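SUBJECT: A protein chain and its fold
Encoding: whole-number codes for local backbone shapes
RECORD BEGINS BELOW THIS LINE
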Amino acid sequence: IVYNSIDEALAGACDLVEVTIFNDGRVAVSDNGRGIPVEVHPVTSTSALEAVMTILHAGAKFGGRGYAVSGGLHGVGASVVNALSSELQVEVKRDGKCYRQEYRRGIPQNAVEEVGEASDTGTTTTFLADQEIFGNLNYDFDALSQRFREMCYLTKGLELHFEDKKSDREVTFYFEGGIASFARYLNKNRPVLHTPIFISKTVNGTEVEVALQYNEGFAETTFSFANCINTQDGGSHLTGFRAAITRVINDSARNLKLIKEDEANLI
């Protein structure tokens, strides 16, 4: 659900996301994006909102809002959460109106209803995880906070407020510097050699951002992401980065006469 809001932020249509865990176990995710479309979709003959919430691989693109960059889960996020929730309610503010639809274990309980007027836009999804599946589910505040922190580093200019009313804890993340701020955060307790180096480029429709900062230590800390998903096992993007930085450092060292042409590489 949060990834849907992140997609809106990556598209420049949202700058605030709020996640709240209530005492009864309900979770609400709210954003100030454009709001999920509610018009009848010609393929399903149902509301685009209902299609997003009940059909696998529908996602926001199903509503005609394809994203150039997506941090989502390939259209299975919202529909799976809905199917695994004993109760779920979606409220959409869009085109000056407020709309609502409720579900039980993924089954719509009513058609999308217009319930009032709205002066702003956005989507709020409130769900209760099915206890018959998950038992008494306790959300890990620290683990979720870490993930939300990463999301905000990867989505420059996004503010995310997270509150757990059960544990009486809350935190707000906002990083104007994006992943350059992430590099500073990782080095906050280490002597650094320079300010973060930040590189951003788009090649053949693929957007790449890199931030790096050397410190005085010998241990390496590397994080890599693809579409805002933490790729803990690396991948071709990380392999390519390592190869590129190795080549650049060795070539620069030779150009600056720090090593001779016939000497071994620095790294």
